């Protein structure tokens, strides 16, 4: 990957099968001993089966964005898997891909606990009962199963398919299905990213609708979205780049859209006032909103001042993507589950680094590297690892092994770890010279919903979670958001939590 432009090398994979003719049957395909890729990609893999192509795309987006991207960018649909034979083929393909994929969005949705295959907004067929009985995931009763109306597909035990039911707004990779086709990159007006403060921007000259622009930003860079502009200076600086780009552009889509009574940048929960403040933000053309529907263009063609212009979302215009520069910052998600609060860090650190990060919240907010002192916390962490907006396979716990006493302790207060609360992995190949270094407590998962706990080397970099009481995390986030908003706007705001 070229770090200066943050573009990805996209290679299409074609997987040949010996002896397959155009009249092949499902049975013929299943006789293939294994699937062997010709080339390697770092973001997507493509598998062929008969006249269909199945594209595994390693971008973390919600179900509805995946549906848009499959149609608008890949010329197809979210994969429809109508037979157990196809499910088993795709599970085998997942076992052979070079991408690290847990599970991916497919084209299934549930209505009143009845599941259907969809193309766009149209029902194709009910999902086969045999497929449901064999491969749907039975969720633990300790985690609520409400609002799990969108379907994903993964594999367990190497190449056995399974279908987890998920909330539609969680972020996952996705699987598209199409007939033979191809795609290309869109042209930009400037090499590299345009830096304004701690945000990076890129202007694309292709003319698309606002909805298609949201999908194209994600496709270009998994961390980017339609542009967010938080003050007058940012809008004027970026407007000048519209003018001096090659080609020069008059206007382009940014990420603001009308919701209920206001325009808002939903990506950062920024609600725009209907009138410009004394500093000129938001930069409405006449100092006030005139049209209470649609999406926002950043526009410079009317004068030397750059304005926010209301427009129909269906209009075809260039667009501007952005991403935050997280090179020196943490990336995390906050979640409230029952009486607990969890801060889920998406960057990886060794155990001591994770502990130090959580200890920063200890005095005022009683934060600590997450500990399992009651069984329901295991269910919470399984949900965090595999079913919410994030997904990962391993995470640090706040347990440490004391070789002198030969016991495990929770680091926060040196109390003994109750091993009966954990799903301890039995090691049948113990070697003292190896195991003596496995002194930091780790949580893993298998088959999507089964927890495994064991000690591992503390120097490994892994995801981690800081835990709080529900009230303390709300207090922490409120303090952080108000400080940030006062720095930018001189006013307070509210914050939306993921809560189950």
UniProtKB/TrEMBL annotation:
Keywords: Signal
Residues making up the signal peptide according to the UniProt record: 1-22
Domain of life: Eukaryota
InterPro entries xrefs: C-type_lectin-like, C-type_lectin-like/link_sf, C-type_lectin/snaclec_domain, CTDL_fold
The keyword S-adenosyl-L-methionine appears for this protein: no
Domain (C-type lectin) ranges: 49-177, 196-322, 337-467
Name under which the protein is recorded: C-type lectin domain-containing protein
